[in-house]
Amino acid sequence: MKKPLYAAVFLLASLSAYAQQPQSLPPNAKKKLTHDVYDGWKEIPDKQISPDGNHIVYALNPQEGDGRVVIYTTKTAKEDSVRRGADITLTDDSQFAVFKIKPQLALLKDLKRKKKKKEDMPKDSLAIYALKTGVLTKIPNIVSVKLPEKQASWVAYQTESIVGKNATPKGKAKKESETNGYKLVVQKLTGQTKVEFGFVTEYDFSKFGQKIVFSTTGNDSTLLSGVYVYDVATGNLQSVFQEKGKFKKLSLSQDANQVAFIADLDTNAKTLVRLPKLFYWKSGMTTAQKVVDESQSFAPAGWLLSENYQPKFSKNGQRLFFGTNPRPIVQDTSLLAEEIVNVEVWHWQDKKLQTQQKVTLEEDKKRSYLAYLNLIDMKVTQIGTKDIPQVSLDKEIANDILLMTTDVPYSQEHWDWNTKRDVYLFNLNDGSKKQIAKALQGMPSLSPNANFVTWWSLSDTAWFSYSVKMDKLVKLTDNKAIKWYEEDDDHPDLPPSYGMAGWLNDQEKPLLALYERFDIWLFDPFLASKPVQATLGRLSKTRMRAVNLDTDSKFVDLRLVTTFNETTKSEGYAKLGVNAKGVWETKKLVEEACMFSNPIKAKQSDKIIFTKQNFQQFPNIYLSDLSYKTVQKVSEANPQQAEYLWGTVELVNWQSIDNKPLQGLLYKPENFDANKKYPMIVYYYERNSDNLHNHIVPAPIRSYINYSYFTSNGYIVFVPDIIYTVGEPGKNAYNCIIPGVEKLTSQGFVNKDRIGISGHSWGGYQTAYLVTQTNIFRAAEAGAPVSNMTSAYGGIRWDSGLLRQAQYERTQSRIGGTLWEKFDKYVENSPLFFAPKVQTPLLMMHNDDDGAVPWYQGIEYYAALKRLNKPVWMLNYNGEKHGLTLRKNRKDFAKRMYQFFDHYLKDAPAPLWMTEGLPMIEKGINQKLELNK
What angle (nearest 5°) sits at the alpha carbon of residue 456, between those of residues 454 and 459? Predict the structure, then answer.
């Protein structure tokens, strides 16, 4: 898979911000990065700014260990922190930060070693931090926490009564558990008022926090099993439904006067087919009424209410949406295990491959088909069907028109990953359905007020708009003056678009904002007037993209745009607006050689927070406002970086063998000396030059090399871009990489006898191919490589269940035809068939649960090289997939890969695993990472 480019925006830091940078140590006092530094290197996984802009709250966590929540006051630059904080929520009134406090990691590990039971392990605590006073309230033994989506002045949480549970004799009293429920506390955030309810199984606030609905298994005659609503303002507890059973998927209307829930009233736990029922209640009713059950007549015969779909009220409270599903097929419980036949029948007309069905099995079991209850006349209508299963509700559930899509008619086209779909509109007012597109290769979207449907059609390489009211389809773009498809896309397939910014308005004078390569254009969806170019980025080769400052708005905000210069990679911000003459114009605010995150704006002020990074600078948090006149640095995550040797990065340019201009990244060690000769690592994955300003923290590797570690340890790292032509992926890699390497070696600072290459997945394939074509590399590492395109072509991507054919014909492998149409190209681009030519020592990592590239591809190459007596090692981390996820495995792979390159490129002693191997009898006991001295 292609690595995502980091979304980047740009801001200018003031001199005072730079003054806060950690002071550098003398070069000879700095240390090299080692594997021991990983755990303590910190990250900022969560950052928020209060609505009034007066406080910034963020999590600061080491890669392994106990982190903390930091509370920063913007007016005074003072900060406070709470150890082990996580899962931050800031209230709409800017008064409180609510988060969890995790138990100490060292304590948890110690208790696990002592084989403590789950119920005896320490629990999370709840933290309520008053932002204005700094007063912290802690509540122990938290099971769950919820706040209203808006206007939160109350918090609800469940606690586990640890002491009471342990003190209660067995069998004498009802105990708290996931089945029986836990104590629910509904508390005013100021701590002045709270109320408790026992044995609560589920609960939820209304959107604006007026009321909370909960279900309970009951504790005594004062609180019977059932569903209740509690009004936080009046303190009134209202019984909604009282009966024994299981209650789930509780839902309150936006005005908090209506409740819906799903009930299973069958108390026999052994019943195989459950018969859930939908209940509805509104203020004034004495008890909820059953509105949908297994006797329904609105859906296909035998269908049941889905227990897996959360009922949802429309914004106006006049409709209740819910799910249905076919009656499940259950196993005959009278059969013994040895009597059950487990066989898969792969039918040539299967709508979905058996492998796809296996991947989506649990999802399919829980699949729901949308229906709704009209709460005015209590009529029920089924919307989704097996033939048209996908139905989209808008975020606010406010529209009368719904978008429906189906890929069912085309689901047998397993060799094409560009899904085709038919598109329909469903009218909730009259229950009518209308088809508006057939076999569309694209994803349609409904405008905010459901007046238009827009889509990019791959087959037409054009944008379309459809007017719901006028039943009119308009082709908006034609690619004559401007290319609306990705110009640099080099796959033998239909190119994607540059995307859509969104709607400025979809009612009176509707305007749709679309992206081309550089600029934003505004379209009348009827094309009654000419499109308007809102930005002017093309002349300077600067991409401009809208920034979403108001996450609650349905419409796009064009006040601020990001800028990215394709030539220099500099980034920035520009102000966008209409001048006094009615003309759109941009005003550059900032531009610099850095990478920035999209800003997060305070809802009630112009203050924003963002991160700023480059190779040498960690993406710390900065504070500014929409004028960007001053910038204040907020965080300093890793001051210890100043103690270590780091490096620099620069753009390099060269031409491919077939004379195509190329760019790449060149990372050099700190205190680089052009008169010295350095070992060099070459890493590649399609195009990476746009990532010039990406910061790389020292971390154990998932699949690809850590540039910072290599430069700190005296290596040069070269990351070349690769461009492709149809049918020549291996040759293209050679034509692009080798001239780049030769240009660098000709400059004298690269030791031409100490060059290594590394790549993973698609990069791993290119490594496997390159060592069959050249001997200029001293050592090579290939992660999860395809080695034989002929055998891989007919395989399965096990994580998705899809056939691999499309990957070779149209997508990343770029062969451009089927195996029988382009047989010679499949062979020419397969490293396996040229294994006798390999002279380079090769390290592979290919795991036995890889769901993207079947690990037998690694085995084929390993087996061939082993038989040919070539130096080859293959690491298989049992149970891991395409890239390593377990931290212990990532650390292990980092050590082995760096040992491998240090041995061949620096003449370091080889570790025992390289010289002796690792016998299965020693697996997990002796890792043999010691150097063979």
Answer: 135
CA-based nearest residue to 491, from 806, 243, 21, 274: 806
DSSP string, 213-259: EEEE---BTTB-SEEEEEETTT--EEEEEE-SSEEEEEEE-TTS-EE
Residue 762 has φ and ψ, to the nearest 5°, of -60, -35
**What does each C-alpha distance from 19 to 15, 209, 370, 494, 933 come to in angstroms?**
6, 45, 57, 50, 47
Q: Which residues, at least 6 apart from 729, have a Cβ–Cβ distance to it below 8 Å?
A: 765, 766, 813, 814, 815, 829
Terminus-to-terminus CA distance in the chain, angstroms? 40
Q: In percent, how much of the chain has pLDDT > 70?
A: 96
Contact 208, 192 (CB under 8 A): no
Cβ atoms of 100 and 85 closer than 8 Å: yes
CA dist 868 to 287, 332, 827, 863, 925, Å? 79, 54, 19, 9, 31
Query: Between the CA of residue 749 and those of 58, 74, 753, what are the distances in Å?
Result: 43, 48, 12
CA 246, CA 528: separation in Å to the nearest integer?
57
**pLDDT score at 27:** 59
The HSE-up count of residue 870 (CA atoms within 13 Å, CB side) is: 23
Q: What is the mean pLDDT of residues 783-792?
A: 97
Rg (CA), the chain: 31
What are the DSSP calls for 744-767, one per residue?
HHHTTSEEEEEEEEEEETHHHHHH
DSSP per-residue letters across 369-438 = EEEEEETTT--EEE---SSS-EEE--TT---SEEEEEE-GGGTT-TT--S--EEEEEEETTT--EEEEEE
Give the dihedral sign, CA 104/110/111/113: positive
pLDDT of residue 68: 97
Residue with tokens 């449907």: 453
Q: What is the pLDDT of residues 246-267, one digit of tens each?
A: 999 999 999 999 999 999 999 8
Residue 131 has φ and ψ, to the nearest 5°, of -65, -35
> What's the rounded Cα separation, in Å, for the pair 465 and 445?
10
Predicted local confidence at residue 258, as pLDDT: 98
Across residues 297-313, what is the average pLDDT?
A: 96
Question: How far is the C-alpha of 338 from the C-alpha of 342, rounded, in Å?
Answer: 10
Q: Is 8 exposed, middle or buried (0-12, 13-18, 19+ CB in 10 A)?
A: buried
**Which own/partner pairs from 535-544 qualify as long-range (CB within 8 Å, at least 24 positions apart)?**
535/561, 535/574, 535/576, 535/584, 535/586, 536/586, 537/563, 540/565, 541/565, 541/566, 541/567, 542/518, 542/566, 543/517, 543/518, 544/518, 544/519, 544/520, 544/574, 544/576, 544/586
Higher-confidence position of 168 and 799: 799
- The tokens describing 607, both together, are 């203050």
Quick one: how far is CA 191 from the chain centroid? 36
Give residue-wise pLDDT tens across range 634-687: 999 999 999 999 999 999 999 999 999 999 999 999 999 999 999 999 999 999
The two tokens of residue 904 are: 């061949």
